[in-house]
Amino acid sequence: MPREMGAGERNVVDVEQPLLEEEEKKKKSPALLYPNCPGCKHSYLQDPDAKLPYKIFGTLAALTLVSALPISSLYPFLYFMVRDFNIAKSDKDIGFYAGYVGSSFMVGRFLTSVQWGMVADKYGRVPVMIIGCITVIVFHTLFGASTNFWMAVLARFFLGGLNGMLGTIKAYASEVCSEKHQAISVSIVGTVWGLGLIIGPAMGGYLSQPAIKYPNLFPPGSLFDRYAYLLPSLCVTVISIPTLCITFYLPETIHKHDVKEVEQAEDSKYEKPLSLPIPNNLSRAGSRKYTVCESIESPSVHSPLGSLHEPKFEDAWNQHSEKGPQNSDQVQTRSSSLRSLSQNEEDMNDNDGYRALLGTDTPKDAQEEKIPGAETNLRDSTKKKKSLWTSKPLMASIALYCIWSLHDMAFSEIFSLWCVSPLADGGLGLSTTVVGQILAISGFTMLVFQILFFAPLVNWMGAVLVSRSGAGFTTLSMAAFPLMTMLKGTSLFIVLNLLSIVKNILGILIFTGSFILVNNSVRQDQRGAANGLAMSLVSLFKAVGPAGGGSIFAWAQSRQDTYILPGNQLVFFSLAVVSLITYFTTFEPFLPRSLDRPLPEDRDVE
């Protein structure tokens, strides 16, 4: 029968294994430390074994579509809309005024994308996406109902300036799934964006001027006869309203640790009366052991030579019992220090986004106070945030994104002009219907590729190599476009379709790859500002691309008989040069291969 322990007898307890198990539990369940933090509540989405969040992906797809449709739906009717404003003195001036209407959106986005990114980092991703949906509903509807030139320009400007949704969506897509599913989430954004660029022009072309195209449904004098371009905008609004409703149910991914909870957790650490250090003595088996006394005696150490008295351990015990008031004062000192940190945090939050961009250090008091635990638990609020402008990986990723956007926008402008230009001017002489069919076929193929093949390709090669391959093969494909003038009829249609399909697939590799690189180059608390900065700079390049491409195309039309790069050869040679520059920016040391994986949260931007 088991013998009862008498007073003064000791029981040897192995505490190493329980301590290790406790540490593992803390690592696996960090959300228990901050129950009121929305980021901690939904951190399970980033677990390696987490399943794909299909509902969240569906909402992200709807938000991306709402972002894409206002950009692309106006181009089919923009010429006629400006003409009806009666602001141009002649038909030749319509394109000039149409350029102002089209570029006003990008100007607004260029001026505010960084600020929206900082708002997303401070207040959360979901509020920014909600405001973006409301902006589309209000200002895109006003644009469709515009009755004069300046109303249209201002509506487009505010539509771009008050909508910071796209950059936030890109950051959010990499935060709602595990690392192995990141390529899938980002490719969904790129896929739906491409789908929006196909649906938008079709919507604008078929639904504008409905009283002229469908007089039986919209008789003269009706609402849509007076506002001939309102119907496409209302269709976008119909899609945006349910999207706005489901956006409220998206989980927030930004961590917001309540300083009061951290203070209570720190106080509880120092209020435990029996938290004693474990001596570094080992038993015969080599595992760490100490003696738990059943009676009130000073602790002793279990040794192969017998029970040995440990003076240092006994001193620690006595200090703990005799100097209780001092420990209490120490707890109050540490608590007051934590409270001072919370006050500093309120001041820091006001300029948190600018600190991310400019690299402002944390307050001096917060750096000098070396409080155990608080330094880790308040890391999100007191961590020094280096400047995004000085982050070489981030700026390299943004440079790749910007240079390729310049190429892509210039190519989109040039390709349509080249296809419909007369044969005598070096064009293909195709109709707008045929050009629309080519763009639709290549766009559909691009969507299929991105859904089925992009994610496995990125997981196998990495985002850097995928972007490099896309830029390299695009440079080679530019040499094939001028040769299309040698073909006619069905052969021209088939070969041009194949070439357009290849070009679109290669473009998707670089675009979506650059999204991943931007997100991987910063921590989560700076991801919104980083995507805002990227969207701001890219908007500038996208505004320059069409104007630059159109100018080069017009210049090339006037030099058909030169010996060096005549006509459209100059055009596609210029595009090849830009894609070649993109190719070189994907090599080290400019773009490190480490960006294939996200930046660890315990590391700062380089």
Automatic annotation (TrEMBL):
Region (Disordered): 1-27, 318-379
Cellular component GO terms held in the UniProt record: membrane
Segments passing through the bilayer: 60-82, 94-111, 123-143, 149-172, 184-207, 227-250, 394-418, 438-458, 470-487, 493-518, 530-556, 568-587
InterPro entries on file: MFS (IPR011701), MFS_dom (IPR020846), MFS_trans_sf (IPR036259)
GO MF entries: transmembrane transporter activity
PANTHER family: MAJOR FACILITATOR SUPERFAMILY (MFS) PROFILE DOMAIN-CONTAINING PROTEIN, MAJOR FACILITATOR SUPERFAMILY DOMAIN-CONTAINING PROTEIN 10
Protein name per the record: Major facilitator superfamily (MFS) profile domain-containing protein
Organism: Physcomitrium patens
Gene name as annotated: LOC112293481
